[in-house]
Amino acid sequence: MNENPMDEVRIAELLRELPPVPEAWLRAAQERPAIARAADQILELAETDAEFRRTLIEDLETALRAVGHEPDPRLVDTVRRRLPGG
Amino acid sequence: MDWASVSDAEVVRACRAGDDAAWRELVERFSRYVFAIARAHRLGESDAEDVFQETFARIYEHLGRLRSDEAVRPWIGQLTRRLCIDRLRAAVRDPVLDDAEEQGEVDRRLTAVDEAVSVHEALRTLSADCREILDRFFCRDQSYNTIGELLDLPPGTIASRISRCLAKLRQAYEGRSGADPASGET
To answer: Complex ipTM, two decimals?
Structure first.
């Protein structure tokens, strides 16, 4: 048992301390595995295709579009961080 | 799958095994905690969102390095606090860390957040009906009328149900032994 029992007013105050986050934030964070998988595919292609690798380093967004990915900022950021020297 | 009865450690293990549904649950489960820490540091909405997304990006990338699956909450708390402080330092617009009084206020808020986490963990042990009505009224700040319309109940019933569920929550909270989410940091 807790040593200091709380009254219900305090319990209510503490419930209010953790409001829900905006739905769009939640969805964006929940899509993280799909972003990571897309980054894996792109980086695998960059390992086997020198021309694609060069484009990826020089103009990442164009390179992503060329292989059918919209340059979502989270995907751009993930790929950039995982590129050599990124 | 009903995730309410699944422990934090089990959710972490499922995430590590590549279970996308588990990842969605992990984000859902810890989202309010991460957001509350950002608010405690008084970040603006844009910075709070950046910290929120960066925190979950790092969690996803580094989940494999977590030394104890049971300690996922303190690990996430520590990671979020570090990102908040980095953000404040980078902005150089709010020297919170140089002002002892301000830092004391942030610490006080963080303590309240940890206490709130214990209450929310007790909330998870209540029935789905109680969880929903307490969340709508206290966390989402919805009125009796709004809740009544959503749940198809008269406002008078809402008031008595909130009161009954709050009493159950207090009992559940007091029944938890030594609930201290801040312990066991890695």
So the answer is: 0.82
